[in-house]
Amino acid sequence: MNQQRPLQIGVTGGIGSGKSTVCRVFEALGAPVYEADKQAIWLTNHDPILKADIIRLLGPQAYDEAGHYNRRWVAAQVFSSPDLLMRLNMLIHPRVLADTQHWVDNYRDKPYVIKEAALMREAGNGNTLDSVIVVHAPVDVRIQRILRRDPHRTEADIRNIINSQISDDERLKIADYVLFNDERQLLMPQILQLHHAFSQTVPA
Ligand SMILES: CC(C)(COP(=O)(O)OP(=O)(O)OC[C@H]1O[C@@H](n2cnc3c(N)ncnc32)[C@H](O)[C@@H]1O)[C@@H](O)C(=O)NCCC(=O)NCCS
Ligand SMILES: Nc1ncnc2c1ncn2[C@@H]1O[C@H](COP(=O)(O)OP(=O)(O)OP(=O)(O)O)[C@@H](O)[C@H]1O
Predict the structure, then answer these.
(1) How many Å lie between the centroid of ligand 2 and the Cα of residue 152?
(2) 143 is a domain residue
(3) Which residue out of 19, 35, 37, 96 has the highest number of ligand 1 atoms within 8 Å of its CB and is therefore the one to mutate?
(4) Tell me, what CATH number does 151's domain have?
(5) Rounded distance, CA 96 to CA 201, Å?
(6) How much is the ipTM here?
(7) Position 98 in a domain
């Protein structure tokens, strides 16, 4: 396919909805995937200006003795303080957005690329995305999945994170497509349908 740029597709969803699971399937189908949350963490450890900004915002405990970003401690601070979370987001997101644009340039020959992120249009990501997929699952199912996957988190921790994120109703409003990852509907056929559609669409 000879086109100037790939379609940029966002994948978002609440904690435990199945964003990463969905992205692994897109990847197996040949789509490059940018994992914004993971890349954000990488930047907190490798971008010295960001590191200094985070220490200024949260204090030296944001990094452990070896100088690594202290995710558990930071999570305890920001997921119980909307103001701190917003300030942390404001430090991290401009860097993630810039990093994404460089990344996309590597894939001009692909029909579409995927950007997985906890925050989507609410973090300004929407400006560069052609479509947003919301992965949706009921809260109770998500909590059970996270309790199984992350033994260090309690149900109260998970509910705190859910309350720090936009509501399911708000998230569904920004969706161009919804993937239902509940226990009733099969995920694969839904993903395959989107893969075929994106593979045939030429960006405007
Ligand atoms: C807050 C931090 C320390 C929590 O780390 P921890 O290892 O405990 O959790 P993890 O990263 O697995 O995230 C837990 C859940 O919260 C979501 N999440 C991550 N960051 C955010 C955020 N800023 N706002 C809302 N939800 C978020 C994740 O998608 C996941 O669903 C860490 O996620 C972080 O530094 N986040 C800021 C980076 C960011 O803004 N990511 C989004 C980039 S678009
Ligand atoms: N349809 C499914 N059936 C059973 N388990 C699933 C399903 N979808 C996801 N899971 C499991 O649920 C857990 C959460 O899924 P995943 O990590 O993909 O969610 P996420 O939205 O990326 O999570 P986070 O918000 O924490 O980044 C994982 O252990 C995953 O294997």
Answers:
(1) 16
(2) yes
(3) 37
(4) 3.40.50.300
(5) 26
(6) 0.95
(7) yes
Tally of domains within the chain: 1
Amino acid at 153: R
* Residue 167, pLDDT score: 95
Residue 183 corresponds to which tokens in the numbers above?
């226990």
Q: Which of 200, 195, 201 is nearest to 30 (CA)?
A: 195
| Ligand nearest to the CA of residue 117, numbered in listed order | 1
DSSP per-residue string spanning 116-165: E-S--GGGTGGGG-SEEEEEE--HHHHHHHHHHH-TT--HHHHHHHHHHS
Is residue 1 included in any domain, yes or no?
Answer: no
Residues with CB under 6 A from ligand 2: 13, 15-21, 145, 149, 181, 187
pLDDT tens for residues 77-101?
999 999 999 999 999 999 998 899 8
Whether pLDDT at 122 is above 80: no
Q: Is residue 186 part of a domain?
A: yes
The Cα 118–Cα 70 span in angstroms is 19
Q: Which residues of 50-77 are buried (b: 16+ CB within 10 A; e: fewer)?
A: bbebbeebbeeebbeeeeebbeeebbeb
Instruction: Decide: 123 in ligand 1 pocket, CB within 6 A.
Output: yes
Residue 151: which domain range?
7-200
Nearest atom of ligand 2 to the alpha carbon of 23: 18
pTM of the predicted protein model: 0.94
Ligand 1 pocket member 119 (CB < 6 A): yes
